[in-house]
């Protein structure tokens, strides 16, 4: 029996949603989605309120996902304009810089509105129109949110590329969506180290195929030297500052695209997950309010980067649509020391703190002292996201960080889902360490066995979602068929998450991890195929196979098996060179943690690499290899196992 942490009476008493309300609303949401979501939609400001609420079919021959299809709204208006009367002087974004010695800055809703309008006008003046794509490659600074909101204001589709990605990865994403303009900064700053963002953009734009980019707007952030290439490159302040502080918003249909965000899949290049305006914004706002039990005076801090979906939904769109104060942190958890998170919480009196298990595990390793020398008395709620949280880390988070006072919401969701699908609601759902617990309103999870049959009761299987929710992605940018094939073909009539999951006797969900060829490294998705193709692009590599393996801090690490071309021999230098090569090709997050020379790879007679076997070898569990009888050359396995033992 797993531990149970019942909802505390004082939490329940103040909560927006208690046990009865959850049960009642959940029932209503699945029995009558039109009534439920029609009412929920009233939390947004619409130019034209939607009359048609849900129009969804997961049938392959009649496929459609539409929510609020006759409604019209603008996301930036919902995040800014409508708060001006009541909250114009309230802090919308609280910026905490990389260095604690640099000044923190509070940006009010009115200032954010004006900055957004100026940039929106500037973008229009540079010829950016509704439907055009804009790439945002910025550090965690207020201008990143301004850039997203300015695109939303004029109906341009933003594609935020995480600042840790390398020039090749920027170029792939720019080419895929045909960006017209890039917004970047001179440099980023993380843990005292400078990241050459503008130089990376320069390198990306030398790659053939990136010629759609007409303009690069450069924010002066660190003041570091950059090359400015006229007429392409323009200083952000030169173009933006002279613009008027009002900007007529574009009226968007609810189903008009809001943004593209690239994420790794099991095959090929990252796919451009496309989210639309009405359903996404509503779902981000509603889940943010409910899961974090939001109050007007909360200081809310999500430690994600805006380069990931968590930053989109739960730093920018959800919190701002709700009129909240959202903290943006430029730095890292261990700079200048491992107390930083907790010091920032005290400094800004943070009430809600949302982070990833990998950060918790890394800080747990430092012991209690760095936590205990801070107060953290402002905290009332903790959150976790990105990967399963192991019960040991959960308890440390609960007891040491939250002083056994704050509920933890373990929120399961994906880039594709737009917002949280399975999570506790703090006033309504008893907690179990390691379980994301129960579904949000309108979400119908189910578990299927290997034959694709839905299993009832306490069981384990692949996690599917049986019906749509408003925040669901609508397409893979430029490849709608890939969208349908990836998510709706495996289990007809349902959305396939790619995750394995267990359900216990109380109906609680326990995510067990990816069941496809995606590795979850520190809460970030890396496709094994991407790392493999980076490796084989090195002239000395003949073949590569990449799998995930359990990693104490990162959750999963990257394990690469490499076969060299005929006349090359393994060496420590080549080992280093290949790891550095992947960093340079994709970005530091994709660098293999472990690289093993493989004279041969285990393949079936038809030539398919048997990853199941490679995973077991990487896990150091050669006694669990299972059936190897279908291998073309079984001796390959023995030599890999032998080699692994040597390490
Ligand atoms: C994958 C999605 C959700 C935003 C950040 C990651 C894993 C995410 C949890 C959780 C167990 C989780 C899943 C999922 N995951 N949250 N609370 N418990 N696993 O978004 O990069 O799209 O990755 O992250 O495996 O499929 P993403």
From TrEMBL:
It catalyses: acetate + ATP + CoA = acetyl-CoA + AMP + diphosphate. Mg(2+) binds at residues 536, 538, 541. ATP binds at residues 386-388, 410-415, 499, 514, 525. Belongs to the ATP-dependent AMP-binding enzyme family. PROSITE patterns: AMP_BINDING. It comes from the Bacteria. The modification N6-acetyllysine is found at residue 608. Keywords: Acetylation, ATP-binding, Ligase, Magnesium, Metal-binding, Nucleotide-binding. Acetylated. Deacetylation by the SIR2-homolog deacetylase activates the enzyme. HAMAP family: Ac_CoA_synth. The keyword Acetylation applies. CoA binds at residues 190-193, 310, 334, 522, 583. Its cofactor is Mg(2+). Residues 530-608 form the AMP-binding enzyme C-terminal domain. Residues 81-468 form the AMP-dependent synthetase/ligase domain. Residues 22-79 form the Acetyl-coenzyme A synthetase N-terminal domain. InterPro entries: Ac_CoA_lig (IPR011904), ACAS_N (IPR032387), AMP-bd_C (IPR025110), AMP-bd_C_sf (IPR045851), AMP-binding_CS (IPR020845), AMP-dep_synth/lig_dom (IPR000873), ANL_N_sf (IPR042099). SUPFAM superfamilies: Acetyl-CoA synthetase-like (SSF56801). This is Acetyl-coenzyme A synthetase. Pfam families: ACAS_N, AMP-binding, AMP-binding_C. Catalyzes the conversion of acetate into acetyl-CoA (AcCoA), an essential intermediate at the junction of anabolic and catabolic pathways. AcsA undergoes a two-step reaction. In the first half reaction, AcsA combines acetate with ATP to form acetyl-adenylate (AcAMP) intermediate. In the second half reaction, it can then transfer the acetyl group from AcAMP to the sulfhydryl group of CoA, forming the product AcCoA. The lineage of its organism: Bacteria, Pseudomonadati, Pseudomonadota, Gammaproteobacteria, Lysobacterales. One of its GO terms (molecular function) is acetate-CoA ligase activity.
